[in-house]
Amino acid sequence: MANKTFDTDNWRSFLIGFFAGYDAGVAEENYKYGMILNFTKNNIYVRCVLNVENNKISKLEFGREGKIESQRSWLKGVFVNDKRLPIEFLQTSFDGEEGKRYEAVWNSDNKADVLKFLQVPCNYGWQETTYRLGKDYYYKVDASYKLNELTVKETVPILSVTELEVDNAGKSLMAKFSVRVCDSFINDFRRHSETIIIAPWKN
Predict the structure, then answer these.
(1) What is the distance between the alpha carbons of residues 99 and 59, in angstroms, rounded to a whole number?
(2) Parallel, antiparallel, or unpaired: how do β-strands 126-133 and 191-198 relate?
(3) Do 21 and 76 share a domain, yes or no?
(4) How many domains does the chain have?
(5) Residue at which a domain ends, from 71, 103, 123
(6) Hey, which residues does 48 pair with through a beta bridge?
(7) Which residue has the higher pLDDT, 45 or 135?
(8) Which domain holds residue 138?
(9) Considering the domain boundaries, does residue 5 fall inside one?
(10) Neighbours of 65 (CB within 10 A)
(11) The whole model's pTM is what?
């Protein structure tokens, strides 16, 4: 069964064993500080960055590759250390998520949290509603998904490359201001939205 807990002693073997149940493609890449694992199937990827010993996850994320219904991908789901809800949607980028909030050392509690996180790309899927003004000014995405009995919705502002480089406090202020302006009634006639549903791997 794809969701079984494997009797392994590190994240690398645990994840490879887990994803074997979904017939996902796997690619391994060694780099200076450890290893990057990429699992792909049906235009969905799961990417994991491990330390050299394979006993700590530095970063774990999922998202979609390419375009679906001509809509590009703005989002990725990122693992966070939260027992209640170990998922946070962020704007797509490789950099930016660093530190203990995004890490998971190898132990039974963290395995349970990682398995919960993986339910979204593997068994549940998710929905993205992208908002834009005019032809091509995209400014936010609403992400929604179900996890067990919980339905979750997050709003992710779309920032420019320059805005993404600003410190977190400044970035948050700019994002809130931009979304508030774009959502205001003065832009009602210019606002458009597109919704796509990303099917999980089990399908």
Answers:
(1) 9
(2) antiparallel
(3) yes
(4) 2
(5) 123
(6) 37, 60
(7) 45
(8) 127-198
(9) no
(10) 11
(11) 0.85
100 three-class SS: helix
4 within a domain of the structure (yes/no): no
- Asked if pLDDT for residue 62 goes beyond 90, the answer is yes
Report the SS3 class of residue 86. coil
- C-alpha count within 13 angstroms, C-beta hemisphere, residue 174: 15
Tell me the angle at which helices 11-20 and 108-119 cross, rounded to the nearest 10 degrees: 40
- Report the percentage of the chain scoring pLDDT > 90: 52
- Candidates 199, 181, 201, 200; CA nearest to 190 is 181
Residue found under tokens 């994803």:
19
Residues 116 and 132 in one domain: no
- Region 170-199: mean pLDDT is 83
> Which pLDDT score is estimated for 1?
41
75-78: long-range pairs with CB below 8 Å, 24+: 75/128, 75/141, 75/143, 75/156, 77/117, 77/120, 77/121, 77/126, 77/143, 78/102
**Contact assessment for residue 203 and residue 194, using Cβ atoms and an 8 Å cutoff:** no
Contact at 8 Å (CB) between 101 and 79?
no
